[in-house]
Design brief:
This protein has one domain (3-277): Alpha/Beta hydrolase fold, catalytic domain (Rossmann fold, 3-Layer(aba) Sandwich). The protein is built from ten helices and eight strands. It has helices at residues 37-43, 71-84, 135-138, 144-149, 174-186, 188-199, 201-215, 235-244, 260-263, 265-277, and strands at residues 3-6, 9-15, 22-26, 48-53, 90-96, 112-120, 222-227, 248-253. The longest helix is centred in the C-terminal third of the chain and has 15 residues, at 201-215. The radius of gyration is 17 Å and the shape is globular. The protein starts with a strand and ends with a helix.
Length: 278
């Protein structure tokens, strides 16, 4: 997997290459770019798919000790990646983590031609509904992040209501989850990075609320794909986002929880193709 050295540290990314339109696919907390593996298989024949692994706990390379790993800092790092790889005319798609919305109206906005918000954090839903709401408090307790990650070492505990059960309707394969959780459970400095992000949740919430106003000025094609059975991202948020975006188009994806790329990759890929045709 290619790597790139950015201001905060080394970032891994998948790049299918080719001369087709570029789709940048962004994952959520304690995951990596492999969240999008099924969607990439559906798109790679016609599009260049770039899936970075952001420092959200599933990253293999710890960031520099002084790195800004707030939501805004990680969004800026994503923008830096677009610039470093000279990606233009990008279709930016995000699922679960909503921080990529902070690129709209930023210095990197001109690189984004289309936007896809796929059952992701929005408005004040940071951290999302459910057990994740406790993470900022747990992270302030010495050893709290270590204790919170303990269940993820065991396959049978990963789909509990208090862990990743509400994220996907269908079990994520064990080898994929092993890959997601290995960095945070195995590397102290990755846990340090995760704690830095989680503990800044209140500021992330304020930043994401403010970003909603910038969406009003995004005058390019936009897709809002929301899982009809989502337990973590309020259904009303999908409608509100589509109304904010001047060219927003709302699609509800049935038979799916938050991780639409896991539960309904073919349906999501079809809607992304329609977006790319606009």
């Amino acid at each position: 997997m290619p790597e790139v050295e950015l201001s905060s540290g080394t970032i891994d990314y998948e790049d299918t290459g080719g001369s087709g339109p570029i789709v940048v696919l962004v994952h959520g907390l304690i995951m990596d770019g492999s969240l999008w593996r099924h969607v990439i298989e559906q798109l790679r024949a016609d599009f260049r798919c770039v899936a970075p692994t952001l420092p959200l706990g599933g990253h293999r390379h710890p960031m520099h000790a002084d790195a800004d790993l707030s939501m805004r800092g990680i969004a800026a790092l994503l923008g830096e990646l677009l610039e470093h790889l000279d990606l233009r005319g990008v279709t930016l798609a995000m699922n679960d983590w909503g921080g990529a919305q902070l690129l709209i109206g930023s210095a990197h906005d001109e690189r984004i031609a289309r936007l896809a918000l796929c059952s992701c954090e929005a408005f004040d839903n940071v951290p999302p509904k459910g057990a994740a709401r406790l993470l900022p408090y747990i992270a302030r307790v010495p050893g709290g992040i270590d204790a919170a990650l303990l269940p993820f070492r065991f396959d049978r505990l990963r789909r509990l209501p208090m862990t990743y059960g509400p994220l996907s309707k269908r079990p994520v394969p064990r080898e994929v989850m092993d890959r997601w959780f290995a960095p945070a459970t195995g590397q102290r400095d990755v846990r340090r990075d995760l704690r830095k992000y989680v503990i800044d949740a209140a500021q992330g919430r304020r930043d994401l609320l403010a970003a909603a106003d910038a969406l009003r000025a995004f005058d390019r094609p936009a897709l809002v794909a929301w899982a009809s059975e989502d337990r973590l991202m309020p259904r009303d948020h999908g409608r509100r986002l589509a109304e904010l975006l001047p060219h927003g188009h709302l699609v509800e994806i049935p038979d799916s929880y938050t991780l639409i790329p896991e539960d309904q990759p073919a349906a999501l890929a079809a809607n992304l193709r329609e977006l790319l045709a606009r």
